[in-house]
Structure formats: C-alpha cells, structure tokens
Amino acid sequence: MKRQLFFLLAVVFTISSCGKPAAVPSTTTAPPPSPTKSIEPSETPLPTVTPACISSEPAQKDIDRALAFTGEIFNTPNWMQSYTVNESNVAVLWQDAPQSALVYLEARIMPCGYEEPDLNREFSDENWRAIFANYESYKLLAECRNDAGLRLYQFETQNLGLQYGVNYWVKNDTDTRLIAAMLVFPLESKLLLDEYSSMLFPGYSSCP
Predict the structure, then answer these.
(1) CB under 8 Å to 194, separation ≥6 — which residues?
(2) Helices (H) and strands (E) in the chain — how many of each?
(3) Torsion angles phi and psi, residue 99, rounded to 5
(4) Whole-model pTM above 0.70?
C-alpha cells in the first residue's frame, strides 16, 4: 500500500511540473523590418496592439478559490489535504491512503487569457504523456464537453500490476483562470470514483 501511495504522489509531482499551461508568448511587439523605401507623408504606419495581460502570480483570492472549490466533499478524517502556491497556479492535493486514492486540483492563471484552441493544445496527447509518465500504461476511454465548456477526460491506467480509473475535468472559471481537477481511484473502487465524481461535478460525472 505504501508503494501505491508513493507512486500516486510521484504522479502528482509530475503533474505539478509538466501539467502547467503552455508558456504564454511575450507581449512585447517586435519592431517591424526597415522599409525598403522612404515613407511618404501619406503612408501613415498602422498602430500596433499589445494584448493586456495580468500578473501570473496567484493572489489570495486564487488560494481561496482553490481551497473552496470542492466544498465539504473531502473534509473528512480519511482525506488528508495539502496545497502549494506556484508561479502560475495553486495546487491542492487530497490523499486517502487506505483507499490508495487521490484528488488533485489546480486553479491555473492564464495571464493573457485563453480560448478553445489554447485548451485543445494544452490538453492533448503530449500533455497526457507527461501526466501519465510514471504509469506503465494509460488509455483514454472517453472525452466530452458540455454547452458551458466543461471538459471531461476519462482514463484507465496501470502501474505495479494495479489498474486505476481516472476522471479529469477542465473548467473555464474566468477569462484568465481555469480549474483542472483529477480523481484517481483503483479500478476495483470504481463505485467510489463514480460517487465522488457525482458530488464534485453533478450532472457531468461521466461522458454520455
């Protein structure tokens, strides 16, 4: 059991280091190339637009949001909670050692905003390979998205001869912030995975 829990923690560290949003391009506008001829008075150069970005440093409201997102669901003696504040996210971890289960949540800051194509690139095959780098294998079973933009990815993974079920949600929280939440339970505890998934995201605990 200790080896299982140590492995699950190793996965969390992998997520913390590799599951962060892709680097945001610099907001500094590169100077245009020198013109090949002198600009006549009538040839007024077009103005450049620099996107407005915010600081990537988490504020207290980001910490509060991450800690409060799950409500009282994991506020029981069998779940041990810890959290870290990083450069562009607040990460919260809950562990249930007897069940060899964990819950990992990130409140991510996207300083210059994001759109659906950004999330498509972020949550792609490359991202999953990084997240599940410490597993012997993983398989994407289903992925779906509702009208509000809430994404769900469902996996089965294997390590040290044990199989795990994984539900991974991505929620558009604000224009510059998103929530990523991951539940990992042994496959033999699928009923518990389904129960906690229903409490965390009512009505969207599994793909249709």
Answers:
(1) 205, 206
(2) 5, 7
(3) -90, -5
(4) yes
Using an 8 Å Cβ cutoff, are 114 and 56 in contact?
A: no
157 contacts 135 by C-beta, under 8 angstroms: yes
Whether 15 and 182 have beta carbons less than 8 Å apart is answered as: yes
CA-nearest of 189, 147, 193, 191 to 172 is: 147
d(CA 52, CA 39): 30
Half-sphere exposure of 136 toward its Cβ, with a 13 Å CA cutoff? 7
Please write the tens of the pLDDT for every residue from 55-108.
Answer: 999 999 999 999 999 999 999 999 999 999 999 999 999 999 999 999 999 999
Q: Residue 146 has which token pair?
A: 């509702």
Are 101 and 190 in contact by the 8 Å Cβ rule? The answer is: no
